[in-house]
Amino acid sequence: MTQEISSLMDGELGAQEAGRVVQACCASEDQKQAWYVYHVIGDAMRGHAPRDTFPHRTLEALREQPVVLAPRRRIAVDTPFMRVALAAAASVATIGVVGWLGLQGGQIGGSAAPIAKATQPAAAGGATNVAANVPAGVPADGTVAVSSNQPVLNVQDYLTVHRQIPSPEFYRQVSSQAPATTR
Amino acid sequence: MSDRQIDQQLVERAQRGDKHAFELLVTKYHRKLERLLSRLIRDPAEIEDVAQEAFIKAYRALPNFRGDSAFYTWLYRIGINTAKNYLIALGRRAPTSTEFDSEEAEGFEDATGLRDINTPESELATKQIAQTVNDAIAALPEELRTAITLRELDGLSYEEIAQIMNCPIGTVRSRIFRAREAVAEKLRPQLGTTKDKRW
């Protein structure tokens, strides 16, 4: 192992091997001493022999310190693997959200119908059939009900009426009806 | 793996709670930091105190070290600030600049003209250590002496040394290690780090 410490100091070990040697260095008194003495030899050869023996005092003071723990640093997302993983996670999340919204939408439509039906009988007096105001092409099945003064539409009808791209037929019929309504 | 990367590995281990890793950094940089501090402080005992305080501050601040700069550059800044605060606390004037900036600190090992921080006693110890190392190197077989000299003084890689000495890299690795071990055997009693003695 001491030969590997010698190679580690010289920067001649790969990352994995260096990690293993560093770990061994930290775990063994003999390896730590080798680390220290080899550094002193290098310093002395370069004309910087230590002015004293060993930094016992500093190490003693260090031992009295509570152990520090740093939060783990965030993993860099620059690696190709991380990019692919993140893209996959984002796709799954998007599909999940869209699917969930779709299910929610179905439930709203399904649950709105009974409400409309329930309000229909009560609205015999106050209910207004707005089918006349609904453009042609919209199924005028009389599901529009008014509760108090606020008209309540079936959600499906509402969505049909307000769909963003209506068919050309829709415009044709509306334009043909328009003069009739103004009259 | 470069010197800086090795330091970074030690720092990361220390950040995960391994104090031994920081001890390795202390033993590696203690002498270098003391030489730096001697630019600001004259008294050797005070230099030792400030160096110790700087290392403790660095240890406490480890969670803030992100590895943007080399560990030694970071330690250098802490050391200089600790020394300035120390001088201010004593009512002495702290230098406004320290001549060397952080980048130069990287190559400070070879800087010349530093004030000798040795007391007569420690100067003797220093001379004895230097003498022991020189004698041990001189007593080495030539191939070991050449290998360790090319590595430590000329800073050549194993591959470059292998080319110069016309031998495989594995042989260079072994020669440098054997040279270090031979010198270490002579040096350990003087350093107070005999194999049966704990740090």
Description:
The complex is a heterodimer of chains A (183) and B (199). Helix content of chain A is 61%, strand content 3%. Chain A is mainly alpha-helical and 183 residues long. A two-stranded antiparallel ribbon of chain A has the order 1-2. In chain A, a hairpin with a 2-residue loop joins β1 (145-147) and β2. In chain A, α2 (15-27) packs across α3 (29-45). Chain B is mostly helical and 199 residues long. Chain B is globular, with a radius of gyration of 19 Å. In chain B, 67% of the residues lie in helices and 0% in strands. Classes of the chains: A mainly alpha (183), B mainly alpha (199). Chains A and B meet through α1, α2, α3 and α4 of A and α1, α2, α3, α6 and α7 of B.
Could you name the key traits of this structure?
heterodimer, A: 183 residues, mainly alpha, two-stranded antiparallel sheet, 7 helices, 61% helix, B: 199 residues, 0% strand
Question: What's this model, at a glance?
Answer:
The complex is a heterodimer of chains A (183) and B (199). With 183 residues, chain A is mainly alpha-helical.
